[in-house]
Structure formats: C-alpha cells, structure tokens
Amino acid sequence: MSVIIADPEAAVTLLAGGNLCAIPTETVYGLAADASNSKAVARIFAAKRRPLNHPLIVHVADLPAALKWVQSLPDWAEKLAQTCWPGPLTLVANRSELASDQITGGQDTVAVRVPNHPLTLDLLRKLRERGILGLVAPSANLFGQVSPTNAQHVVSDLGSYLAENGDAVLDGGSCSVGIESTIVLATGEQPVILRPGAITGEIIETLTGKNVVLEPGNTPRVSGALDSHYAPSAEVKIVASSHADNYLPKSGFIALAQIPTPEGLVRLASPETASDFASCLYQSMRYGDELKLVNIYLVLPDATGIGEAIKDRASKAAQPKVRGNS
Ligand code: TXA
Ligand code: MG
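That is the input. Now the predicted structure with magnesium ion docked in place:
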C-alpha cells in the first residue's frame, strides 16, 4: 500500500496520534512530527539518520504562533516576519520554555518559520485547534542527501521506514521554490544570514533598513553548513560556461536555457531564470542519479539574488563525500 495520502485530515490524525507525516512546503518537503511529542521527534532523527545535536525548525501557522516559541523578536525581525510569512524565511531567536533541548540541540535559540503551502497551513491551523502548537520538520531526505521537492522523492528515500511505522507523506505537488528557506539569526541588532535562500540579503536589507551580515558555514549549528550536503550519488562539478573539453561521458548537464549542451552530455534541465534554476536543481540532480550518470556538470547563474543560495547548495553538493555523511 502506498504511504502517499492526499487528505490533510488524515495527516492531522496521524500527527496528533504521534506518527510522522512528510509535509509539502514551498521550499522542500519536511518530515514532520508534533514538536511537543518527544517520542515522535526522536523518530525523526532515526528515520533520517540525523545526528541528535542538529537542531530542528518549528513550523507554525502564523506570527502569533511563532512568538510563543521565542522569548521575543527584535523589531526588525518582527517586521520581516510580517512581510515574508508565510514564506521561505526561518528566524532563529532566543527560545521560550516551549522549545525543548531535543528540538534545539541544547542551544538557547530556536528556529521558527511559517511555510507557504495551502495544505500545510490548513494542517497547522487544524492541529492548533487540537492544542498542537507546532510541527518540527527537517527536510524529508536521508541526512546529507538531496532535499525532496515532490512526494515521490520522499518515498524513494524514506518510503520503507514510513510504511513500516504507519507514517505517511501528504502529497501537495511539486515545491515552487525548490531550495530550503533562508535562515536568519534574529538575536541582535543586525540580521545575520546563516543559510542563504529565496529571501535574499537585498530583500532583507530593503525590508528592515539594516545592514545584513552573511555568515553561511561559519557555524556547525546549521547541518547544511557541513562540507558535503545536498549531494546526489553522481559527482557534482561546477564549470564555467566557456569550459568545453574534458567532459566525461555518461554525464549530465544543468545550465540556463541559453547555454547549449556540450556534445555527448545528457541535458537534465534548461531553466529560463535563476528562480527556475533553484526550483528544478534538486529534482534534476535526482533524475541524474536515476539515469545512473557518473558526473553532473552545473553552470551556475550569477551569484546575485537567489543565485547566492544556488551557489551555496551547488558548492556543498560538489564537495568530496565523507563516509558516513553521504
Ligand atoms: O525550507 C526549509 O527550511 C525546510 C522546510 C522543510 O521547512 N527545512 C529544512 O530543515 O531545511 P533542515 O532541518 O533540513 O535544516 C534546518 C536547518 C538545519 O541546518 C539546522 O541546523 C538549522 O536549520 N537550525 C535549526 N535550529 C537552529 C538554531 N537554533 N540555530 C542555528 N541553526 C538552526
Ligand atoms: Mg536538510
């Protein structure tokens, strides 16, 4: 029997009963559990084979719900949340007593976000009516691997674990943004970007009037900050568009539509814009693995706007793989 379900009511029943359910968001699919159920939260780490000290993001229905999980937000961060939520922004702030050590990895801060997907917002509101104030949801992939952007991706990574345990995947179609949310540290006077995403530094500067500090990878608190992450089985290689020789056979190619495919390579995607590039990147890398390609060559769009986040994810995917983190 398939673990894929289409009815948010069924997902409510599962989650309220202490089961796991993968949920659609605008960024990537998350593997969700009731944030107040420590047994269910423990199973997320087991399912993903994720180290226990990697903190989780709490997903909530709206800003008032988010404020319950933190002690307070600086004015600039509240303003940002008012404009960007629901949307691909995660705020990290000093935690309230609701956020357990299990969720935060023992840190004094907690990450919160309001995802922008109609099914999941509906789900979060229905859970709140039952007294469940948030869902923890890391990306629904095995630790270190490519995040899932549709329900089938979740099944191919976690399907047997979910089936054995009576868990499910709520199918909400393909994710529109396609890469994980921007993570912003909101404990001080200035916004600090810990992980770039679709809410760019420029957007944050415009909305807050503050200078933004970019600190991706400076902290092991962010699991995506490990060297090899978001990685398919194929070797990922970032190349300049002019690079024409030395491509290995049985390899794939991803670049903006105007860049022609080098001879002998399999075109995996031809996105028209940088946003389209982000939304098809993970799906295309997974497709490369299905075709059992040896290498996947990427020509990246300019590293401005969302291009910054694409460069971040592509660079992690291109790192040599460390055993135990693949
Ligand atoms: O778009 C997203 O953010 C997706 C969807 C499902 O919402 N979620 C996601 O979760 O990417 P995950 O667990 O794969 O990545 C969340 C990141 C982790 O790298 C974690 O270290 C970081 O958030 N994080 C969580 N709490 C934190 C904290 N208190 N301080 C710093 N980083 C934190
Ligand atoms: Mg992840």
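Residues 235-325 form a domain with the Rossmann fold fold (CATH 3.40.50.11030).
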